[in-house]
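Memo to structure team: turn this sequence into structure tokens by end of day. - J.P.
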Amino acid sequence: MEKKQTVPLYKKILNPIICVLLGLAFSAIFIIISGFDPLTVFAKMISYSFLNSMGLYGSINGALPLMFCGLSVALAFRMKLNNIGAEGQFAIGAVLGGWFALYGPSLPAPFGLIVMFLLCALGGGLWAAIAAALKAYWKINETIVTLMFNYIALLFLDYLCYGPWMAPKQTTAITPLIPDSMYLPGLGGTSSALILAVVIALLLQFYLQRTTGGYQISVIRDSSQSATYAGISVKRFIFIVFILSGALAGLAGFVKVTGILHRVQAQLPGGAGYTGIVVAYLSQFNPLVVILVAILFGGLQNSCAAVQIMGVPSQIATMIQGTIMIFVIAGEFLNHYKISFYREDGMEVPEQ
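Reply from structure team:
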């Protein structure tokens, strides 16, 4: 396996599209085995999630946490940092912000929301900063650290929701509702968090494309040795990117608590941190495209109810997500690497 020197723009655009289609084709096999027509199932999923106002609002609500997790992963990957910990950063952000909403001092709107916004971002950023320190000073693989920290964060969240934060007379692991003053305003049938996500995506795009910091991130991505030679502090940017990435994932907790559920519950992220990886890959790490792809995945999640009405197991929609994830990650790898064959004497076999 050898890394390709350049990847044409048309391949970068076509690759994720083809991978999604392959994922759907592979999923169709299992839909047929289940005794259903895949075209009918896909058509029902699309019409339910996007072709009526209620379904579209549901798709956007499901997409909101994916937007922030996708932006989180995309930012880290722009510097070739594998932040697989958006799930845990999401949870810690929700814990810190949820604590303020439930047990903190009562502040008039909108000051309470602003404080909770900052606390959620701080929680996710600090959780990511641990992996940043281990990566910057001891070269410890950030993929393993961020992945393992997910379990710690999720178990801590479960402990709080099953234990000291659990609402009275409840049999499920949920907290009481947060005060009305901490609710994000609505936007039609969805939340104003959509505007927040778009604004942050625009700011992130501007930072990466139009600022010195964004340029330095691209230099580090291409070659950390060249960046060091040019006087760029790689360690400093590992902290900057990781903390910003974690803060974005923490804001997913802010959105889920204040704009959707209005309370904290066990397993709150619900896999959004992992799905954010696929969203980021499909978006080619472009913050603005992340918003659109997240809505598509939100629709995929929202379509579970539609397929259940047809008698199709709701796990079909989850299987489609997983299949697309596998195909996209494999396609992205093959888009940047090629297979070369060599003879025993070390001479490369020319391409036919």
